[in-house]
Recover the amino acids of this structure.
């Protein structure tokens, strides 16, 4: 079985820490994936208008690239990309009339019928290795690390593309993942809430308040860190955290990690695989304080 | 010469220029056919050699829904083609201070944020008369890869047809030009042999030859120029001029 | 909230347009208010999702269109996941946005976003934002 890998634009720049830590972890786990040789931006948000098919073309074109590369599965890391690709794939499988229109429009490509399966990295771990086997591969158990698992929107909604393979009720795939690494997932009331998404472009004040309430909930959960899989969530909750703290009271200073960064560390990979220089400064410091990674040689 | 005209008429084919039917000789390029039909180029025509990008033309063929494109100076007419030239399409080029610019994708994002309005419809690639994979270089830039964008867009002749078809209203060719400038001038390794030649010239390698030339009367200088030895069009790398005085 | 409904204000054409773009039957809404209670942005909306559904049911689309409600919606899909009537409220919000955007009106101008913000934002913020907010 061949697994193609769709990175998504942000993973090649600002979220390189998400990509590098994931690929290093996969290599350590012996799971082979191959990055698509040719791919385009998926569009980041799934088009919800029933009569608008042009915005489905971008993800479908990527699915065609995966099919043409001989892939059975297409794995993604970014929650947004996952959501868009998985829903576009579902549309191409199930909605015959729309499928025909899209295929007719893309007359320079061979017709697509949903041949590829889209999976998120979390589900790839769950399905191909499983949590028990992952636990056995852990070299540096993240003991004593209390983590707030943040799903946000696009890993869970709508239900037909939710990660976790049919979790009913509260999702627990991130908690299971964290437990396998030896960390302690905390009860986190904002785990499935919206981070503010693209509000920053049109309603920055309201967007900041939204992110602030997620951060406040993380503080109330007494977590040491937040873990997530979306570069837009990381921007709103991590990169902008200092700005939010300056505007809203009661916002904790809490590091934000991509889930793959914790995976790489727990698998005993070198800290450089985590690319922590792209996180907020407190992220690496927390891992050093907990003795999961060593301080860089240059640091006194 | 009525006889000659009769002989060539057998080779005339109908084409439609801006909706009007003309009979033109079948072997002509679109550009020559337009001139044959009586039009005179003031704009929309430049090098006539397929490189300046001034004569981009769009056409359809009878009974075919596709839009085709080509450079008028390079594309041979076909019977029943419906064509018009699009010598220019408005696309705003931003002004910037190249010297102070960082060679990173963010520099491009700041000047052309509409880059992120691309919907991957691929109309740009389909219309490109130079077969540049326009969508692919736009995709490369969205993920910050200046090297790939430079490589993929290298054959662009700035004709602007991509911008004319863009759903996201992007000025693709200006964006690609900025990417090539940033990559070529600030990221790509410098050519070592070129640096050596420039240094040797600065050190006076051709100073004596130049002085000799400067001392010549204009007539002799003109003679030297018109009789200079030209490199044959199909020569290989081993070709050398027979007289290499001064080299 | 009290609503005065004048018969002449009913805009069936606009109501049908919302139905056509969203693919949703707004008459399925029973006004339970779950959407408003779970919406992370409803606290900032002058017309909440439930109120928007009621207004559209009554053919009063214009007041919803001229409110900030469709532009505060972050498409988090919480309302539609929780709706006991199975209405994809997120799609109704998208239809409202599309009605405005399809008149070639932009809610943000990409060239007016401060350069330092563009440099700092992840690409998906811009891609997602332009998809939702520009025509």
């Amino acid at each position: 079985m061949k697994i193609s890998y769709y990175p998504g634009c942000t993973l090649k720049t600002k979220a390189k820490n998400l990509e590098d830590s994931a690929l290093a972890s996969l290599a350590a786990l012996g799971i082979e994936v191959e990055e698509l040789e040719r791919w385009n931006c998926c569009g980041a948000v799934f088009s919800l208008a029933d009569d608008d098919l042009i915005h489905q073309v971008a993800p479908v074109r990527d699915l065609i690239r995966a099919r043409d590369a001989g892939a059975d599965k297409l794995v993604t890391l970014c929650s947004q990309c996952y959501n868009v690709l998985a829903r576009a794939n579902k549309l191409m499988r199930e909605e015959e009339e729309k499928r025909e229109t899209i295929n007719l429009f893309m007359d320079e490509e061979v017709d697509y019928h949903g041949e590829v399966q889209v999976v998120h990295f979390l589900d790839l771990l769950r399905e191909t290795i499983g949590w028990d086997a992952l636990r056995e591969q852990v070299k540096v158990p993240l003991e004593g690390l209390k983590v707030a698992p943040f799903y946000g929107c696009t890993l869970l909604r709508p239900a037909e593309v939710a990660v976790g393979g049919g979790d009913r009720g509260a999702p627990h795939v991130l908690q299971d993942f964290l437990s396998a690494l030896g960390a302690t997932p905390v009860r986190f009331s904002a785990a499935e809430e919206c981070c503010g998404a693209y509000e920053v472009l049109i309603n920055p004040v309201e967007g900041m308040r939204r992110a602030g309430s997620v951060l406040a909930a993380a503080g109330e959960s007494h977590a040491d860190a937040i873990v997530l899989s979306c570069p837009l969530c990381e921007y709103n909750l991590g990169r902008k955290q200092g700005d939010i703290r300056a505007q809203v009271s009661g916002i904790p200073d809490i590091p934000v990690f991509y889930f793959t960064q914790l995976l790489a560390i727990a698998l005993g990979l070198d800290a450089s695989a985590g690319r922590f220089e792209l996180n907020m400064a407190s992220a690496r410091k927390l891992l050093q304080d907990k003795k999961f990674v060593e301080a860089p040689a240059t640091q006194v | 010469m009525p006889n000659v005209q009769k002989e060539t008429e057998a080779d005339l084919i109908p084409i439609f220029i801006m909706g009007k039917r003309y009979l033109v000789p079948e072997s002509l390029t679109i550009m020559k056919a337009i001139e044959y039909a009586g039009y005179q180029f003031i704009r929309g025509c430049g090098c006539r050699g397929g490189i300046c990008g001034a004569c981009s033309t769009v056409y359809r063929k009878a009974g075919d829904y596709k839009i085709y494109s080509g450079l008028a100076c390079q594309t041979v007419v076909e019977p029943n083609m419906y064509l018009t030239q699009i010598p220019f399409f408005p696309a705003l080029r931003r002004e910037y201070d190249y010297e102070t610019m960082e060679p990173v994708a963010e520099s491009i994002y700041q000047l052309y944020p509409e880059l992120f309005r691309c919907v991957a419809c691929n109309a740009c690639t389909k219309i490109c008369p130079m077969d540049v994979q326009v969508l692919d270089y736009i995709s490369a830039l969205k993920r910050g890869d200046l090297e790939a964008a430079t490589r993929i867009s290298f054959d662009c002749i700035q004709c602007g047809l991509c911008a004319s078809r863009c759903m996201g209203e992007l000025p693709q060719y200006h964006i690609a030009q900025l990417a090539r400038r940033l990559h070529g001038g600030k990221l790509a390794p410098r050519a070592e042999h070129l640096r050596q030649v420039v240094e040797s010239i600065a050190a006076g390698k051709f100073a004596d030859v130049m002085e000799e030339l400067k001392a010549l009367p204009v007539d002799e200088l003109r003679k030297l120029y018109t009789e200079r030895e030209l490199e044959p069009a199909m020569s290989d790398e081993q070709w050398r001029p027979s007289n290499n005085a001064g080299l | 909230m009290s609503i005065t409904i004048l018969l002449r204000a009913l805009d069936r054409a606009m109501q049908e347009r919302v139905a056509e773009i969203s693919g949703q039957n707004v008459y399925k809404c029973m006004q339970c208010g779950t959407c408003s209670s779970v919406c992370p942005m409803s606290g900032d909306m002058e017309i909440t999702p439930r109120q928007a559904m009621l207004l559209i049911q009554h053919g009063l689309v214009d007041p919803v269109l001229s409110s900030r409600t469709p532009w505060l919606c972050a498409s988090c899909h919480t309302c539609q996941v929780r709706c006991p009537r199975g209405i994809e409220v997120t799609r109704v919000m998208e239809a409202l946005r599309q009605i405005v955007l399809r008149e070639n009106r932009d809610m943000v101008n990409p060239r007016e976003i401060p350069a330092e913000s563009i440099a700092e934002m992840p690409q998906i913020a811009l891609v997602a934002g332009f998809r939702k907010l520009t025509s």
